[in-house]
Write a structure and sequence with these properties.
The complex is a heterodimer of chains A (148) and B (275). With 148 residues, chain A is mostly helical. Chain A contains 6 helices and no strands. The model of chain B has no long low-confidence stretch (mean pLDDT 93). The chains are: A mainly alpha (148), B alpha+beta (275).
């Protein structure tokens, strides 16, 4: 007789990526994870470059800087600051909202239902607007040749 | 679709019989639907006319029992609560709710849901055990106190929130939006005194800190319960009690026994009196 135990049906990691036709905050969750992962990878890369290569003397350091000074890494740098702006500001929104701030009070469930985060969508939009302002600022700075 | 015009819609249903099938597969059925036909009515049509072996759960057919949760076009819905024409498509794909094991076809195994629900002590806890088990009178509660949690009492344990939750997808031990939402519902109840017991259960590994507030559960909920909101309010209580900023709470007392009784309404003359 075949095994009649219920069959496992968890989405696993695919469940993080697959966002169905849910609305904005479900996609921000995904973007928050992706940017977080990207920033960790950048952090490892950055620490490697500024420690291991640096202690090997001026020649190695200059060669590394020479290697990194090309459009691919410049665009990468812009993506890193964009990811940082999003992750930091969205993170602040999450910290506030996960402690119950800016979400209002429970309401009677009268159809059509609107959950707290959608009733207070304004805060999400304010966060995204602030991210956009920073990104535009970074882009102007980047297009002008950056601080260095 | 207008009036009583009948349109043929293809129902692409995931089938899985643990006694025969190695893995789930899809079967297609053509179902005639009218304006207002629900997905559940389509499934009942298949069971009555096309394939009686199709398995799905249903009971009340009016969004109260929470039996017929399933994925319709990859989003969790109650089949009875969802009309076919909402999807503006000639084809509907039906799958069992993910993040819960499949028993057969569209029937998910809700055992873990109920176990997790039970684990957060979803009942009024009173300091006096005798009073809790054998209350002499009802506990007092003001409308304002009821409004603090009324929204969260509408949970029908259908499992749609668990199917929508990205954390439940990858962490099988995660308590899930349903249980955490109900933990808040009872902590927020003015008649309850069990908050400390519940906070110890939810403020643990696989507990409420694993929620990342994607809020998909609240969007999927067919009853407007908003479990994501409840979890954030529960976190506020956990942090409040950890830093000693929690409000002092005394559970509501019981209604005082009635001292005066009104005179009984006299039995009308024409009533047949017992001999």
């Amino acid at each position: 007789m075949a095994d009649n135990r219920p069959r496992e049906n968890s989405l696993g990691i695919a469940g993080w990526v697959w966002a169905g036709n849910y609305t904005l905050e479900r996609y921000l969750y995904l973007l928050h994870r992706v940017t977080g992962l990207g920033l960790i990878l950048f952090g490892i890369f950055h620490l490697t470059a500024t420690t291991i290569f640096r202690v090997q003397g001026e020649a190695v350091w200059n060669a590394t800087m020479e290697f990194l000074n090309n459009p691919v890494f410049m665009v990468g740098e812009f993506l890193v600051v964009t990811a940082f702006a999003f992750h930091a500001l969205n993170g602040l929104r999450l910290i506030l909202q996960e402690l119950g701030f800016t979400l209002g009070k429970p309401v009677p469930p009268i159809y059509p239902f609107k959950d707290a985060i959608r009733r207070k969508r304004l805060w999400t939009l304010v966060t995204l607007a602030a991210v956009m302002v920073l990104v535009v600022f970074f882009f102007i700075d980047f297009a002008a040749g950056g601080p260095g | 679709m207008s009036g009583d015009a009948v349109k043929n819609i293809i129902f692409r249903v995931q089938r899985y019989n643990p006694e025969k099938d190695e893995r789930p597969h899809f079967e297609e059925f053509t179902v005639p639907v009218k304006h207002g036909t629900t997905v559940l009515e389509g499934l009942l049509y298949i069971k009555e006319n096309l394939d009686s072996s199709l398995a799905f759960r249903t009971s009340c057919r009016m969004g109260i029992c929470g039996s017929c949760g399933m994925l319709v076009n990859n989003n969790p819905h109650l089949a009875c609560h969802t009309q076919v024409e909402e999807f503006h498509s000639n084809k509907l794909t039906l799958k069992p709710l993910p993040n819960l094991p499949i028993i057969k076809d569209l029937v998910p195994d809700l055992t873990t849901l109920f176990e997790k629900h039970r684990s957060v002590k979803p009942y009024i806890i009173r300091p006096d055990e005798e009073e809790m088990e054998k209350p002499a009178a009802e506990f007092t509660q003001k409308q304002k106190e009821l409004d603090e949690f009324l929204q969260f009492t509408y949970c029908i344990k259908c499992g749609l929130c668990i199917a929508a939750c990205p954390t439940s997808a990858s962490d099988k031990k995660f308590l899930g939006p349903q249980a955490l939402g109900q933990a808040f519902r009872y902590c927020a109840d003015s008649r309850d005194a069990g908050q400390d017991q519940r906070l110890a259960i939810v403020d643990a590994e696989h507990g409420l800190w694993n929620c990342h507030f994607a809020a998909a559960c609240s969007e999927a909920c067919p009853k407007g319960v908003d479990p994501a909101f409840a979890i954030q309010l529960l976190r506020r209580r956990v942090v409040g009690s950890a830093i000693g900023a929690a409000k002092a709470h005394t559970p509501a007392g019981v209604v005082a026994p009635q001292t005066e009784t009104r005179a009984k309404v006299p039995v009308p003359e024409f009533t047949v009196k017992p001999k």
